[in-house]
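Input record, target 12 of the design panel.
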């Protein structure tokens, strides 16, 4: 099995683990309609096409379909996202955690156009999981992708 055939599955239970997930999720392309807040489950989920930074170092530049799941979410708010245009492209740049009343805090999802999603959480419990579909990487609207060989 080649490196490109392996599906990534990461779980974060603290800020450091979330930093690893953030690095792998950087430049994930998605649409607003691919984000869902499930209040009864206290879960926030987003699906997108993640740039495979690791695979691009030794193979072709590809995007892989991935799901990012946040558990123990108490509240979701956003800034700069239009409720009218749910098909607008978004480019996830970073996922960070700020403590408020440890272990509780805020997870911030920062997008290339300046939009933010804030998740008020009981604690960090995040999973990034590849779903398998791979496509050649293209530029994500709103952000120029630097070729992996230049990184």
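The sequence produced for target 12 reads:
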């Amino acid at each position: 099995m080649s490196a490109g055939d392996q599906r990534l599955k990461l779980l974060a239970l603290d800020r450091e683990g979330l930093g690893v997930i953030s690095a792998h999720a950087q430049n994930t392309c998605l649409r607003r309609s691919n984000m869902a807040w499930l209040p009864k489950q206290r879960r926030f989920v987003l699906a997108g096409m993640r740039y495979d930074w690791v695979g691009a170092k030794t193979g072709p530049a590809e995007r892989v379909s991935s799901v990012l799941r946040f558990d123990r979410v108490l509240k979701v708010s956003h800034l700069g996202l239009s409720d009218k245009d749910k098909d607008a492209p978004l480019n996830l740049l970073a996922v960070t955690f700020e403590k408020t009343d440890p272990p509780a805090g805020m997870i911030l999802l920062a997008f290339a156009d300046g939009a933010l999603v804030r998740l008020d959480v009981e604690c960090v419990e995040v999973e990034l999981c590849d779903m398998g579909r791979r496509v050649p990487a293209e530029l994500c609207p709103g952000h120029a992708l630097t070729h992996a060989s230049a990184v």
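Residues 9-139 form one domain.
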